[in-house]
Amino acid sequence: MNATIRQLHLETQLMHGAYEPEQITGATAIPIFQSTSFAYKTAEELEAVFAGRDAGYVYSRIGNPTLVGLERRLAVLEDGLGAVACASGMAAISAVVLGLAGQGDEIISGNSIFGGTYSLFANLLKRCGIQTVFVESTDIDAYRDAIGERTKLIFVETVGNPKLDVPDIAALANVAKEKNVVFVVDNTVTTPLLLQPKTLGADIVIHSTSKFINGHGNAIGGIIVDCGTFDWSSPRYSQLSIFYKRAGNMAFLAYLRNQICRDLGGCLSPFNAFLMSIGIESLGVRMERHCANAMRVAGFLAEDRRVREVRYPGLSSHPNHAVAQRQFAGRYGALLTLKLESKAQCFKFINGLKRAQNLANLGDAKTLVIHPASTFCRDLTEEQRQAVGVSDELVRFSIGIEHADDIISDLDNALAQV
Ligand SMILES: Cc1ncc(COP(=O)(O)O)c(C=O)c1O
Q1: Is the minimum distance from the CB of 157 to ligand 1 under 6 angstroms?
Q2: Of 108, 293, 368, 403, which has the highest C-beta tally within 10 A?
Q3: Domain of 181?
Q4: Model confidence pTM above 0.85
Q5: Does any ligand 1 atom lie closer than 6 A to the CB of residue 187?
Q6: Whose CA is nearest to atom 8 of ligand 1?
Q7: What is the DSSP letter of 122?
């Protein structure tokens, strides 16, 4: 089925990809299998499933039919080999990194990434003996120069959050391929609607499905998609060799599901997978509207003298506008930032907003606003804050799908109070 589904437009794949009405009842919404375990009539049958001789579910930390529905949808949308769902975006990132790197290894990451990911890489990984080499996110040569014998992956976000810089994914993929290192792309902010990282050479794609994939701010989740492009027999990843012998090119997915995610335990709940499977169906129209609205808001703010600076990859003033234009086919996402004169002004502005909600999330259908320095980046050092592009004067918006005129009037009124 997937071969034909994958020939359809993405908007159609969102509706019909990888789920057909359930066979017993004909239910068109994916059923919620809210069950911890799955029973077998005989000990022999359960043994065969555990041994991998027969297909079947065992325990929902390892696999669950509702989760598989979501995993297949994401695998189709990212044109991947398969996917593994996780409890959150952070759980997905942790599983990939801890699966590929161990004590004495290194990973390379762009320095302009989500604060939580930065903290994981800079702090916890260090305590596990894994060194992260942070490089300027858009400096391709810096990634190349940083690769060594013990480098296990290159990590980048398609649009750095909240700096909103745009690394050249195709150029980075070439660097990773030259050295046979796995290239991991966090596509949370752009979604497959703006970019399928595999088409530019990514090996693994990660999403925090808590954001646009879900779209309604009501569930936390994450997903790991193996694009099927990396040769898992590579001696650089000897921990995968037994999985390669058993599962060939499915080795990484089998390793993630049957060892890394099983042992770390960050599994997605079936109910959250259900919410995300429903949310994903409207991703196409939502992204169109998010992007159109954000472009209008960015244009409004760029003309407004009360605002010191506006950052949006769709503006020609953005330093990576040309890369964004090429990479995202003329759409630039929902995130934009603006700068005022001080933290006090930012707080006054946020407090003056009537409809934009002041909260720690992005990718909700509603317009969201946050002051990064005092919230999700507060644990970063001054140097780290500079790397992720955060200062006290910065406000981040995730522009929603309301009518653009109403979003603009909300911002306009709040700016008048600053
Ligand atoms: C780009 C990006 N990746 C990953 C994450 C982490 O996702 P989660 O909150 O689902 O753990 C976030 C959270 O904001 C994010 O913005």
Answers
A1: yes
A2: 108
A3: 2-280
A4: yes
A5: no
A6: 89
A7: I
